[in-house]
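Lecture notes, unit on binding sites. The following record was shown on slide 14. It pairs a sequence with zinc ion.
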Amino acid sequence: MTQSAPHREYTDRVATGSLPYQSCDGCLSAVFPPRVICPFCGATDLSWRESAGLGTVYSASVIAPRDAEPYSVVLVDLDERFRIMSTVVDLPARDVRIGMRVRAGVDPDGPTGPRVVFTPEEREAAS
Ligand SMILES: [Zn+2]
């Protein structure tokens, strides 16, 4: 199968509940968002992997629409060494902190279809 539509492949995989990314067979870099060519070495052999979904908030901001609840926009660095733009749910947007550990999940009812969202990971430390 050729990777003529990496983004389509990505959204199909998200719809099944995973956080997919690509790994370059040439230089072993994690590649995200999905591409046809590795941005680091130019190789075209990119393999799909599934992230464990654990990461750290790299940056966070609050969006406050006039007619809706405020929500966070975050950049999360996944442990597999790629970065994704997303949002943190189950937590007031103003409480999202840089450096916070988060876990990925899939929101099946995103504005444009299933999307990856994050929830705070802290609470698991108590168990
Ligand atoms: Zn590469």
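Take-home: The longest helix spans residues 6-15.
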